[in-house]
Amino acid sequence: QRTSVREHKMAATAASSDNLNDGLTLQMVRDSLIRQEDTIVFSLIERARFPLNSPAYDPSTPGFCGSLVEFFVKKTEAVQATAGRYENPEEHPFFPDNLPPSLVPHFKYPEVLHPAAMSININKVIWDMYFNKLLPLFVAPGDDGNYASTAASDLECLQVLSRRIHYGKLVAEVKFRNEQKDYEPPIRAQDRDALASLLTFADVEEAVKKRVAKKAMTFGQEVKLGDNGDKGKYKVDPAVVSGLYGDWVIPLTKEVEIEYLLRRLD
Ligand SMILES: O=C(O)C(=O)C[C@]1(C(=O)O)C=C[C@@H](O)C=C1
User: Fold this and answer.
1) pTM of the predicted model, to two decimals?
2) pLDDT, tens digit, for every residue of 133-180?
3) Enzyme group, top EC level (predicted)?
4) Is residue 190 left, alpha or beta, with left meaning phi > 0 and alpha meaning psi from -120 to 50?
5) CA 154, 159, 165, 167: dihedral to nearest 10 degrees?
6) Which terminal CB of the chain, N or C, has fewer other CB atoms within 10 Å?
7) How far is the CA of 240 from the centre of ligand 1 (A)?
8) Ligand 1 pocket test: which of 167, 254, 258, 259 has the largest number of ligand atoms within 8 Å of its C-beta?
């Protein structure tokens, strides 16, 4: 998230120099999405070091309220909330209820989004997708006992996916500003389908899916000296990564964009 905060700041600086609001462009936002792909692919590769480790997901683990992963995520989010993580509008907790307040000095993040953005958090859907659909597709079956490391890896994947998907708020804001006249009528009519077709760029989606598959091939190959490594053997299947984007990441980003736009004139 450091990169994107810096990008925000750069955008804010650009703004003060050319007097164009905060100077945010669709290309800047897309560049951030492209950079986040690297983090997502690497996080999946890290999680794939461990087998499924299903005891980490057993909802009736003695000593924890719920599964070990739930316990781990709740406790980590509490620490991170204290350290100010959720003061950043790009961050969304998975367990937002009863989080402790931030103890760090207030940082004034640029106010780019409409205030209604705060009420949008689709992490429940992301949680369900990640554990019930995605995980079994890219980790090997089995149990090696590394439950804490597994939970830490899961949390990393969840957080980077959540940040990417909720970035839809920023994408939608930029699109709205660029084409306000086109967006206003479907927003007033609360017409989801019309908004969905306005904000969809099929060619961009195709390029995203191809690029993430290529990143999975590049980052996930065995690097060896002296030969070309194991051709065709990757740490995470590139088809799973492009499927993740095509089936979930892009549709959920669009869902966030629509939810945001529906509230944009409130
Ligand atoms: O780049 C955009 O315009 C976005 O809205 C992001 C995104 C994506 O999730 O990658 C979503 C919808 C568009 O059809 C294309 C790409």
Assistant:
1) 0.92
2) 999 999 999 999 999 999 999 999 999 999 999 999 999 999 999 999
3) isomerase
4) left
5) -160
6) C
7) 19
8) 254
